[in-house]
Amino acid sequence: xxxxxxxxxxxxxxxxxxxxxxxxxxxxxxxxxxxxxxxxxxxxxxxxxxxxxxxxxxxxxxxxxxxxxxxxxxxxxxxxxxxxxxxxxxx
Length: 91
Known about the structure:
Layout (H helix, E strand, L loop, with lengths): L20 H13 L4 H11 L11 H5 L13 H10 L4
């Protein structure tokens, strides 16, 4: 069984990226701190990034739908009754 090995000396393809100047400065600082190049940072990110995110970002309403329930209490709560009436909620 063969495992994918990355050959650091393989021929490379040059691409052009257009990014915010402050982000470019940050990328250079990050690369310097890691003792590598900006190209290597981008290459590593792309190599490890998944094409199929495990947890795609869903809207807040979808993530939390059905998670909240109205608490029942023996004492009357005027605010709760007003909210239930306003939003058409039943007990």
